[in-house]
Every structure is written in structure tokens, then in C-alpha cells.
């Protein structure tokens, strides 16, 4: 039987949605913290195939999710293009900054990224052997705009100010940066698919700060280009796009980019999305990750509300954004149980 996630991505409406979670491997799990300590630091964990495969498998063992997402990070691409990347404990990522055309020119060519990223492909090959038969393996990359916001600012920023400033000062150089990241992303995701990824997801976590033409040019167009190239090289490969906080721009995003599924953040009303986004195909989402911290009856009620809202079409259950380190694993188990108990064929 075809895996549930692949059926939903192909447009099938299932009795209950398949489920996985953004950031399902992470600090809220004690077994993750133990493996990370063994690896030394976060980036070493990303480049240690056996350990990265182990942390990818941990949430599958614990919760029986329908998908495993490769353990890596969107900031490996900047590193593979020649930026310095490091993580400051308790603060987050730091990168060397790119603020003008000369910085963009100094980046490596897209075809060179495999040199740095080959351990990631090895992680996927291990996972193809070790995952349960009905679990789908998802590969991923950051979308060019989101990756560029980190490459320009050298860190995470609340408003992506430095990237907006670069774009305003030298739009041609900024476009060249977006193009270089898009080309690298095509190389990277293509190699992930060859190594065993059955679905790929593009994370445009900061898409919501792009407005009007900027959204079209720097979120939508690069997604369309990447998706077209992947589908040309790997016919039939399903792609999930996540233009986080796109608001009304979620409508039509799948049609415009060729994505098979659009992932929705928790700011989107499920009833609205069922009418305006799901009519184009599969949607993924969008329980507020706060429920993984607070639990209780509200978690059960909201989980049911999301499932009910999307019941008329193809749906993959997920959170609206990543689970946070303060989440309680018992709440994750309760969410999965609640979804699966909604199967009309299930006597429970
Ligand atoms: O152990 C640790 O302390 C590191 C925490 C951590 C983890 C577990 C980071 C640092 N990255 C990851 C893994 C990761 N990152 C995965 C794979 C695992 C999984 O999903 O289970 C994925 C898909 C990502 C994607 C990612 N990294 C995004 C896009 C999704 C999102 O959350 O919006 C982004 C923006 C990043 C950058 C990043 N990496 C890590 C942090 C703390 C951040 C955010 C930095 C910031 O903006 O301040």
C-alpha cells in the first residue's frame, strides 16, 4: 500500500490525515539532547551521518509519525557556498555577512556545494535502510529569500531588516544572491532525492515579510524555478512549499509555483484555507505549536478542529511552525492519539 503521506500529496482525501511535526527532532526530546551532547555541537551533529540518522529516527520510534524529516539545517547551504557558519549556545546561528555585490561574487558556484553537503546525502541513505516501511522520508532546504536573510544579516533577525536594506540598495546584486541560492538549492535537493528523499520541502520561514512585487519576485518565483527544475530532473517528486505568514498570498501559491502541497502557519484560519487553498490540492498544518507546551482539553479540541476543517480534501496534519524546546513529549503523543482516534473505521 502506498504510504499515506504520498497518497495525500497525490490529492487523495483520507479518513484521517497522516501526521508529522516541524522540528520533530529537537531539544524537547531527552534522547535528542543526549545524542547532540555525543556529537559535540549542533553543526557536527548535522555532518555526522550515523548520529543525524539516529536523531531523525528518535521521534519516529516514540510517536510513530507518518514521515521522518532529514536532520540537517537550512544554514548548511550558506556554509556550502562559502559563508562561515557557527552556532552560539543559547543564542542561535551566526554567519559571516554579505552586504554588497562583491560579497555575492565571492560565493562558490552552485555545483560545488556537494563537497560540503555529501554527509547529508549519506544520512539519507542510512535512513532509507532504517525507516519503517510505511514512513515517508522528507528532505528539505530553506527557500532562497529565507536563506538570504541569514546570509546578509549574519544571524536571525526579527524583521529581516538587513536583507530588505540590501534589496533596496542594490536590487541587481540582491537578485544575484537569490539566484545563486536557488541554483545551489536545486543541486542540493536533487542530490537529496537521489539519496532517497521521497518528498522535499522548501522552508520560506520569512516569506511573510515580503510584500507585493517583492513577494512575487523573491518568494514565489524562486520557488517556481526550484520546483520546475526538480520535477524536470525527478518526474513525479512531490514538493511541499511553506511560505510562512504569507496570509492572503497562500491562495494560489500552489498553482503559481507547481507545489503539490502548501504548508500553513497557525495564523491562518483553517476554514478559510479549506475554501481558498485546499481547493488547489493538499494542504499541511496548522495547529499552534503552543498546544505542545500547554496540552489538556484545549489541545484535544484544537486538534479536532483542524482535522474537521480539512476533512473534505487532501491534508497532512502538522503544527503551524516548529515545536519549541519547552514542549512536553506527552502532549505530542496526545495529539497523535487524538487524530488517529478520529478515523470513522476505528472502533475506539
Ligand atoms: O540543538 C540545537 O540547539 C539546535 C536547534 C536546531 C535544530 C533541532 C536548529 C538550529 N536547527 C535544527 C534542525 C532543523 N532546522 C531541521 C530538521 C529537524 C526537524 O525538523 O525535525 C529543520 C527542518 C530546520 C529548518 C530551519 N532552520 C528553519 C526553517 C524552519 C523554521 O523553523 O522556520 C530555520 C529558519 C532554521 C534556522 C535555525 N536553525 C537553528 C535555529 C535556532 C534556527 C533559527 C534561528 C533564528 O532565526 O534565530
Order of helices and strands: HHHHEHEEHHEHHHEHEHEHEHHEH
Q: Give the averaged pLDDT, no decimals.
A: 97
- Rounded to the nearest angstrom, the distance between the terminal CA atoms is 23 Å
- Biggest sheet, open or closed, and with what strands and sense? 7 strands, parallel
CA-based shape: globular
The CATH architecture can be given as Alpha-Beta Barrel
Strand order of the largest sheet: 1-4-5-6-7-8-9
- The number of distinct structural domains comes to 1
The ligands bound in this entry are: coproporphyrinogen I
Structural class per helix/strand content?
Answer: alpha/beta
- List low-pLDDT spans: none
Number of strands: 9
Helix content range: 40-55%
**The first-level CATH class name:** Alpha Beta
Radius of gyration: 19 Å
The number of helical runs is 16
CATH topology: TIM Barrel
Please indicate the percent range of residues in DSSP E strands (runs of 2 or more): 5-15%
Catalytic activity: uroporphyrinogen III + 4 H(+) = coproporphyrinogen III + 4 CO2
InterPro entries: UROD/MetE-like_sf (IPR038071), Uroporphyrinogen_deCO2ase_HemE (IPR006361), Uroporphyrinogen_deCOase (IPR000257)
Binding site for substrate: 23-27, 73, 150, 205, 321
Subcellular location: Cytoplasm
Note down, in words, how this protein is organized:
With about 350 residues, this protein is α/β, with parallel strands linked by helices. The chain has a single domain, classed as TIM Barrel. It is built from 16 helices and nine strands. The strands form two sheets. Strands 1-4-5-6-7-8-9 form a seven-stranded parallel beta sheet. The chain has a two-stranded antiparallel sheet with strand order 2-3. Helix 7 runs parallel beside helix 10 (about 170-195). The longest helix is centred in the middle third of the chain and has 24 residues, at about 170-195. It is globular, with a radius of gyration of 19 Å. Homodimer.
Amino acid at each position: 500500500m502506498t504510504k499515506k503521506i504520498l497518497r495525500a500529496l497525490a490529492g487523495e482525501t483520507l479518513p484521517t490525515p497522516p501526521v508529522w511535526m516541524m522540528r520533530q527532532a529537537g531539544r524537547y526530546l531527552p534522547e535528542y539532547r543526549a545524542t547532540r551532547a555525543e556529537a559535540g555541537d549542533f553543526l557536527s551533529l548535522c555532518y555526522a551521518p550515523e548520529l543525524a540518522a539516529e536523531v531523525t529516527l528518535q521521534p519516529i520510534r516514540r510517536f510513530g509519525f507518518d514521515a521522518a524529516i532529514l536532520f540537517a539545517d537550512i544554514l548548511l547551504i550558506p556554509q556550502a557556498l562559502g559563508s562561515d557558519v557557527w552556532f552560539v549556545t543559547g543564542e542561535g546561528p551566526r554567519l559571516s555577512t554579505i552586504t554588497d555585490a562583491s560579497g555575492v561574487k565571492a560565493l562558490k558556484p552552485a555545483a560545488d556545494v556537494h563537497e560540503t553537503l555529501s554527509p547529508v546525502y549519506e544520512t539519507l541513505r542510512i535512513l532509507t535502510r532504517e525507516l519503517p516501511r510505511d514512513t515517508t522520508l522528507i528532505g528539505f532546504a530553506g527557500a532562497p529569500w529565507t536563506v538570504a536573510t541569514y546570509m546578509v544579516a549574519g544571524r536571525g533577525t526579527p524583521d529581516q531588516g538587513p536583507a530588505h536594506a540590501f534589496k533596496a540598495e542594490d536590487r541587481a546584486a540582491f537578485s544575484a544572491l537569490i539566484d545563486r541560492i536557488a541554483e545551489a538549492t536545486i543541486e542540493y535537493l536533487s542530490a537529496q532525492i537521489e539519496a532517497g528523499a521521497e518528498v522535499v520541502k522548501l522552508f520560506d520561514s520569512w516569506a511573510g515579510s515580503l510584500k507585493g512585487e517583492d513577494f512575487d519576485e523573491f518568494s514565489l518565483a524562486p520557488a517556481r524555478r526550484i520546483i520546475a527544475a526538480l520535477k524536470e530532473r525527478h518526474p513525479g517528486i512531490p514538493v511541499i512549499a511553506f511560505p510562512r505568514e504569507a496570509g492572503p498570498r497562500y491562495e494560489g501559491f500552489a498553482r503559481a509555483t507547481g507545489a503539490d502541497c502548501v504548508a500553513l502557519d497557525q495564523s491562518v484560519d483553517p476554514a478559510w484555507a479549506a475554501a481558498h487553498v485546499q481547493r488547489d490540492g493538499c494542504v499541511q498544518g496548522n495547529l499552534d505549536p503552543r498546544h505542545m507546551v500547554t496540552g489538556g482539553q484545549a489541545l484535544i479540541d484544537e486538534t479536532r478542529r483542524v482535522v474537521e476543517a480539512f476533512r473534505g480534501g487532501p491534508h497532512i496534519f502538522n503544527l503551524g511552525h516548529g515545536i519549541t524546546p519547552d514542549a512536553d513529549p506527552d502532549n505530542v503523543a496526545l495529539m497523535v492519539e487524538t487524530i488517529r482516534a478520529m478515523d470513522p473505521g476505528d472502533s475506539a
